[in-house]
Design brief:
The protein is of the alpha/beta class and 190 residues long. It contains six helices and five strands, in the order ααβαβαβαββα. 15% of the residues are buried.
Length: 190
């Protein structure tokens, strides 16, 4: 008599009483896809209605939301740090009149070009280990700063400039921002 045991290969099944054929059955897959599609429909329908209403009534809702997110990110980038020092209009005027050369950036979170320049500016400042002063022209009254800007020759915003120490400024071309900051930092350390 042979005492060896024989085992039959048994296929494991995830069939249950509630789901005949298991989770891999076609019925379960169709039910799962239906639930996913229903969830997407529930979330997309109000969004579609909101988009249509925004277009009909000219609300600019999505532009406002995007601008709010971009402005928040910009303000986070321009918060006081060892690279950026925010100033008000009085301090800006004092910096221009000082006898020392300073780097000043004038921008705003509402201005698209300002938001695009900030990463390059912060990279150049970090690379050269220098500090820039930042003036947000959106927070000030235009009547207050327009006379100052006209006097020192600022014609476009945003603007990056170097004070010359005699009440005048030299504007830096924003297309060559990194090279200009590097040149200025090397010149000022001599």
């Amino acid at each position: 008599m042979d005492s060896s045991a024989y085992f039959l290969a048994v296929q494991t099944s995830n069939a249950t009483v509630l789901i005949p054929g298991g989770y891999d059955s076609i019925i379960f897959k169709i039910l799962l896809l239906f639930c996913i599609d229903l969830t997407l429909y529930i979330f997309s329908l109000p969004l579609l209605i909101l988009m249509i209403l925004s277009k009909i009534f000219n609300w600019h809702l999505f532009e406002t939301i995007i601008l709010a997110f971009e402005s928040h990110r910009y303000r986070k980038e321009m918060k006081p740090s060892k690279l950026i020092s925010p100033v008000d209009l009085q301090k800006l005027t004092a910096l221009i009149q000082e006898s020392q050369c300073k780097l000043i950036f004038i921008g705003s979170p509402r201005d698209q070009l300002s938001r695009l320049i900030v990463p390059k500016l912060k990279y150049a400042l970090k690379l050269n280990s220098i500090q820039a002063y930042y003036f947000d022209f959106a927070d000030a009254d235009p009547d207050d700063y327009q006379s100052l800007f006209y006097r020192i020759g600022i014609t476009a915003l945003p603007s990056l400039m170097i004070t010359n120490g005699d009440g005048s400024v030299t504007s830096i071309d924003l297309d060559h921002l990194e090279k200009a900051i590097q040149f200025w930092s090397q010149k000022s350390t001599r």
